[in-house]
Structures are given as C-alpha cells and as structure tokens.
DNA sequence: ATTTAGAATGTAATCGATTACAATCAGGTT
DNA sequence: AACCTGATTGTAATCGATTACATTCTAAAT
C-alpha cells in the first residue's frame, strides 16, 4: 500500500504539499507540482478515500432502497439515480429488500453509521413515523411512493390523475360498464389509482358498481383471477382498467382462456408501461411513467438536500403519458 | 455527532474500554460493560464505520459491475449476490454501465481507492488484459461471462452444453432443418451458443447451412429481422433456436406477422428463461439459467477470495435446465 | 540594503475508531 | 507482609488523508 507519505518522501516534499497538488493544484508552484505528479505516477499512488472521507466526514455515496430490484420499473428509476449520481462523483449503494418489508428498515443503519451521505427510498412501506424521523436527521428523498400529508421531498407522478386519464380514455371510447382491478388498498399507490378511477367515473355520471371493483395485489395471477370474476358476471364489463401492467397481462390471458378476444370483446388498459407491454399481444395500451426522469430528479433533489441548498418546493410531480396501443377499442356493445 | 470519546467520558472509562465492550465484550468486566452500554444507549451512539474501516483497512463492501441493471437476468443475479452479501455483513455497491462498455472500466477505480474489498463482474466486455491484471491485485469473480483460457474464478452455466441441449431437443422432436439466430459473435457467449448448436447438429449428422445461421445482437428487433430472413428462404427451417429469449420473442412475432403459427408451422426455442417467457404466447420453451444461484455462488466465492481461503477450483459450472413450454412441437413437415 | 506582501511550503492537529503495550487491581500463596 | 498471576483497564500509536496555522521564500518597493 503506497500512501501519501511515500509520495511525499519520494518527491521530497511534505504530505501537505502532495495533498494540495491533488485537491488545489493552483496553490502550489508548477515545478513542485511536476515533481509530485511524477512521484505519484511512478508509485502508482491512489489516495485512500476512506481516510479522506473520515477527515471530511462525507462519503460521496448515497443509498437507494428498492423494494424489488428484479422489477424493471424500479431498476429503471435506479438507473436514472445512478446516472446523475455518477456524473456528480457519487457512488450508489444498493439496498434490495427483495420484497421483504422487514429488510427495508435494516438498511437505514448504513446512514446512521455515516456510510452514506443521503438516501433515496423507492418504497415507503416501513413505518411512516420511522421515515419521518429519519428525514429529520438525514437527507432523504422519496421517489415513486409518497407519504400522505408529509413534507418529505418527493418525486412521483400524480397517480390519481394518471388513473383518471386511463379511465377517461376508456370512457371516451364509449365504454360505460368499466371494471377496475385495483392494487392492494393498504398502500397509497393502490388507493390513489382507485381514487382516480372513481373520480373519472363520477365526472361522467357513470356508476361504480362494487362488483366491478376487485382488489388485486399487482401480480399477474391476481389480474388473471380478478378478470375471471368479471367474466363470471351475468353482465360483464366491456372494458377493464388494471392498476398495473402485470395484472393487465393476467387479465388479458383470462379473457383469451375464456375464448374471447382483447380488445374486440373486452378492452384492457394497464398502468406503468413496462418493458414487455409493447411486445405483449395485443400490445398493451397503458399509462407510461417517466421512470428515468423520476430517478434523475430524485437524485438532483437529494444532492440539493446534501448541499443544504434551498428547496423551492418539496413535491415534484412528473408527467405521465397515455400510450395508445392495441388493447383498447371503441365500445361496440352498447347496452 | 457523538463519538466514542463522548461515550467514554459519560461512562467514565477510556475509549479503549468502550471499543472492547463493542467488539470483545468477554474481555471486560460485567459491571463496566453495563455502565458503557448504558452510556451508549443514552447517547444513541453509533460507531463511525469509516474510522473503523480506515483502521482495519477493510470496507465490508463489494462492488458489482452490471452491464444493464434494467435487464432482469442481471438483476436476478444481483439479487443472489446481495442476498449472500448482506447475510455476511457486506454491502453492495452498484456499478451500472448502462450498456456502455466505456463506463464499465471506470468503476474499477472504486477498488483501487480501497472503497470495496472485492468485485463481481457480470460482464467481461472491457479489455481482457485489464481484467486479468486487476484480478492479480484484487479479489475478483466473474459471473455469467467468462474469459477464454483465464484462471480467474468464474461462475456460469456451460453455454455450449446448454445450446447443445436446446438444439438436441429440437432434433429429438424430429426437426432436421434447424435455423439459429446467434448472439453477437464477437463475445464468447455468442460464440459458445453457436458452438453448442453446431456440435449438436454434427452429432446427429445434420448439415449446418450458412443461410440458416444468422447473427443477431440479443435484441427483440434483431430476432424479428433474422426470422424474416429465414422465412424469405425458398425452403425455410421447421425449427429455430434463438440464442436468447428476447430474440425468440422477436422471431415468433415475425412468424405471426407472416400469418404463420408458432409452434404449428415453426418451432422456436429460446435461451435464458426470462420473466416473460412464461407469459408470452405461446409460452416459450427455453433453457433456464439458475440466476439466483449464480449470484449466491459468485458472492460466496468472492468471500473466500477476500478471506484468502483456499479455492478448490476456479470454474464453477452450474446446471441449466430445459423448460418445456409450448413453442416447440414435433416436426410434422418431413422433407 | 531593508522592508514587506504574498506565494509556497511545512508542521502538526484532527477525523473516530482499534489495539499493542503498559499499568493497575484483586485475590490467592507463601 | 511480600509476592505473584491473571484479569481489567488505560495510554498512546496508528490507519491515511486534510487543513489551520506557522514558517520560509521570492520578488517588488522603498
């Protein structure tokens, strides 16, 4: 291990000078600088970042807690975070909870032990009071999810308006009997998308029949099963809004298995626009989230927090977008 | 920031004793220990890990370089790595190259600067000499990819035998005219899967016609286009082996767009068994890689390297598996 | 030649832990 | 009482950088 002392000795200067050559070259004479650089190269010196960090009490590392790294939605957000982080000289520590809520909280110790300068949470399923407290002590940004009534800086889309948009699209196609497969209603995300659905229906004076709202859990299987329930109805919906794409896939599959067609017999719209949605058959009409931008915005926000810059606001709502593909069609089955 | 000194003062002992209470409690008297613990709790003391790491010259962190984090194949391997890492008290630094070869190499500095104790490479596209040199100086494990003729510890499946297995499966179904859509042939992975294909054909005395081997680049679009080439032949293949699932999806789509059916008119087999292969229509027959196990094995291997344990061998070949779904069927179109 | 300001460099404290070594203590032996 | 041993605890060096402050140099001004 070659340290700054070795370089200093070799170049016949003090360690202070070596340090200055590295961090503030303008403060040292050209000639000395050359000498030092030469020694650095000859010894292949690499500063020990741990020592630097200890001295400066900063790590140039941020922690990202992800509920499930194998979910492309999150990995795309993560990529956005990484992109900005690396460009600003930060490294990204990954905390993958593997869909286990208990593990999410454990990662917080990384911050407490000063091994990261800040944290981005892509999940808010742990105790909200814990998160709130934590945000008081450390730079923290919420992305994708949010906590109701909290002032923690948050980046996300407006899930209510997104869901409303999806529903109104179906309505604009002439559908009146519309079913919804919701996400789990114990998380804000699930509730918000249902809320958007209800708002759209109300705005157009359409009734929301309880039998046409089924609670899923964001999985393919739940989408499949809930659609089966709809199809068992004496008077099934002509269109279905699934709160995410996986459930929409399951729903479409259920329709096909019943020897019916999407979109001819039933229109289906999803939410998220994941990778496979365009490859799926029929290509899925859905609401697209700006995943990469959510990531970059969250990271930029965190950087401001770390640098104690003034925040102009703490809720950043990004634009979602309706992606029209081929799983929805005008209602040709008027009551 | 409360440090060990504050605790020492409060408990009326030296910092050495506090340190011992934390790391070797058996070396300090019960009574003192209690006093110290009390102070620790009252002050909510958290040891500064940076300082500890600096002193011990270890970081309890490993770096994983991923070519593309949004690819579920890699994120599953990553999850395996994380799983073992966290259970052994290690943290995972993520280096996502975003499919940019140049960025892969940049992450190596993290190691040089002693910010990680070891590294797992899920890609070997940078200069092999660079990797070889690096492996001399730092604990390094290759996962998924490998370098020909290298002694670097490697965890992967046997791509040649996997490809052979896929091809022989088609042959066992009575197919004789079999096409292959390869991966890029400038990477070992691509070459190996082609090699396996050729071996299987040779073993069964089947000719490999040049027009029936098309080079793709692992993307959906390339699969689509190469299949189009096959279909334009006067005598197209009755079965096609695509070197990964994405290309297989594209290939199937091409067949459908030509108003033919998979598997009735053409059988298609893929490689990797990614998430959507089972949802795809028809559900894709493919070779499944034990992604999670690749990750766990790689991490365990790296741990051994870090602890300087003896390695019994340096090539770990895990078992792949043929997953029979519905995209392949017996040849009903004998020449 | 002397003074002086500003540039360049060096000295040593510091960040917060760990740990080799030294010092002290408690209790048992003689 | 004097001595010894092993258990406990304390002192201070150490890890490798950064940086406040002190010192020395340089060159221009007087």
UniProtKB/TrEMBL annotation, chains A, B:
Pfam families: LacI, Peripla_BP_3. This is LacI family transcriptional regulator. Signal peptide: none annotated. Residues 2-56 form the HTH lacI-type domain. It comes from the Bacteria. Gene3D superfamilies: 3.40.50.2300, lambda repressor-like DNA-binding domains (1.10.260.40). GO terms for molecular function: DNA-binding transcription factor activity; transcription cis-regulatory region binding. Keywords: DNA-binding, Transcription, Transcription regulation. The lineage of its organism: Bacteria, Bacillati, Bacillota, Bacilli, Bacillales.
